[in-house]
Structure formats: structure tokens, C-alpha cells
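A reminder from the course coordinator: this example appears on the midterm review sheet, so study it carefully.

Given structure:
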């Protein structure tokens, strides 16, 4: 089996080169990873270039692959550490939604719902995670941003514009799509309007939990892992 890690030393310095994920612990790489996208040869330091050329490997693609639930949990733990380090003054609460929250055996993207403290600027949060060097930005806006974490996992941060949308955001970003469609149909059938991450016709009706939303629709509550797959 091909070794995924190698240690290279020049002038007595040693760097840990991760061939599989195409990362290196040297200063050059840490600098380059902030400025070039995954899949760009310019992102690589000389250590990675040397190993990739020697072994005739292809560049890690910027297209993310699904990962197992267990692997996803350890990524979530890492990302949570970063969020918690920043959360005291900025992030009020956050939740990993999507297929991870539904405990699917294979997880695609990570969908995080975030609530900022009033007066906190979400762009300060973006700066903070970008400075860590492990998050490569793809899209950035006031309510949504997309990153590639550690060259392998796609992470979407969905920022709620107001706390009253919390439960509707959890429901919407936990999915799956078929369950969102089912609930939208029930809502329309009851004349409650269009159900979205902002409520019924963008009115959250004071509903604070997903249970309350299900009951408001006259439905039995389904835990995330029980929502239609
Ligand atoms: Zn290097």
C-alpha cells in the first residue's frame, strides 16, 4: 500500500507531508493554501510537488467526496472546536444539520445553521475561519457561505437573519428534500401558505422548535433520523 505520509527534511527541518490529502506542515504550504484553490498546482509546496511528480499522482480534486458517518463525526468535532473558540462573543448557537443530523451512513456536505449574537458581523466569523488556513472559501454572503474544509469536506454555513427563524432553518437544512416537499404540500393543503426556512409565507408564527412546527401542521413529530430518506 502506498504511504500517505512522508517526512522530508532539508537543512535539519522536518515537514510532515500528507500525500493523500496533499497537505504539508511547511511554511510555504501554509501560506499557499490560503491563496490558491484546491486542485491548483500553485497551491503546493516543493515537498508536495516533488512527491506528486515522483509518484505520478493526480492533484486532489476540488470536488468533494462523500464521507462515512464516523469520519464526518470527527470532522464535526474539529470544526466545532474552531466554532467554540470563536463563539464566546460572536456565535450564539450552531447546529450541524443535513445528512449528518439524520445519521446517514454516508454524509455529503455539512450544513451548519448559525445564529450570531446581535451586533456581531458574520464577516468577522468568515475572516476568523479563513485565517485558520484550513477553510478554503467558495461562496460568501450575509446569510450563506461555502467552504472546503481540510481539502476534503464541503461545509455550508447558513446564518439566520433573526433568531425567530431558528427552528424553520433546522427543519429546512436537515431535510431531506422529500420530507421538505411533503411538509410543504401539507402546509399548502391546510391553507397555511408556503413553508420555507423563514416560516409560513415567511412568518414563523412564534414557533420555536421543530416539534412545534410538526404539530402546527397536525403531524406527528419525526426525529431527524426518522425523516424520510
Ligand atoms: Zn512542504
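Designed residues:
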Amino acid at each position: 500500500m502506498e504511504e500517505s505520509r512522508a517526512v522530508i527534511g532539508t537543512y535539519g527541518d522536518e515537514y510532515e507531508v500528507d500525500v493523500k490529502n496533499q497537505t504539508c506542515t511547511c511554511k510555504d504550504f501554509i501560506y499557499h493554501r490560503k491563496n490558491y484553490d484546491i486542485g491548483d498546482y500553485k497551491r503546493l509546496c516543493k515537498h508536495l510537488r516533488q512527491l506528486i511528480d515522483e509518484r505520478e499522482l493526480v492533484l486532489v480534486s476540488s470536488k468533494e467526496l462523500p464521507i462515512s458517518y464516523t469520519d464526518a463525526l470527527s470532522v464535526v468535532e474539529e470544526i466545532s472546536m474552531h466554532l467554540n473558540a470563536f463563539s464566546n462573543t460572536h456565535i450564539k448557537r450552531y447546529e450541524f444539520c443535513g445528512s449528518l443530523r439524520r445519521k446517514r451512513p454516508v454524509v455529503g456536505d455539512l450544513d451548519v445553521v448559525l445564529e450570531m449574537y446581535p451586533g456581531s458581523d458574520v464577516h468577522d466569523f468568515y475572516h476568523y475561519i479563513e485565517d485558520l488556513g484550513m477553510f478554503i472559501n467558495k461562496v460568501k454572503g450575509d446569510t450563506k457561505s461555502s467552504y472546503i474544509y481540510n481539502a476534503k469536506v464541503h461545509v455550508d454555513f447558513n446564518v439566520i437573519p433573526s433568531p425567530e427563524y431558528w427552528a424553520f432553518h433546522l427543519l429546512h437544512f436537515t431535510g431531506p428534500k422529500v420530507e421538505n416537499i411533503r411538509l410543504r404540500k401539507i402546509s399548502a393543503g391546510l391553507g397555511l401558505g408556503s413553508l420555507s426556512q423563514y416560516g409560513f409565507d415567511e412568518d414563523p408564527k412564534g414557533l420555536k422548535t421543530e416539534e412545534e412546527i410538526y404539530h402546527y401542521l397536525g403531524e406527528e413529530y419525526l426525529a431527524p433520523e426518522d425523516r424520510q430518506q
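The CA atoms of residues 179 and 228 lie 6 Å apart. The domain at 67-159 is CATH 3.30.460.10 (Beta Polymerase; domain 2).
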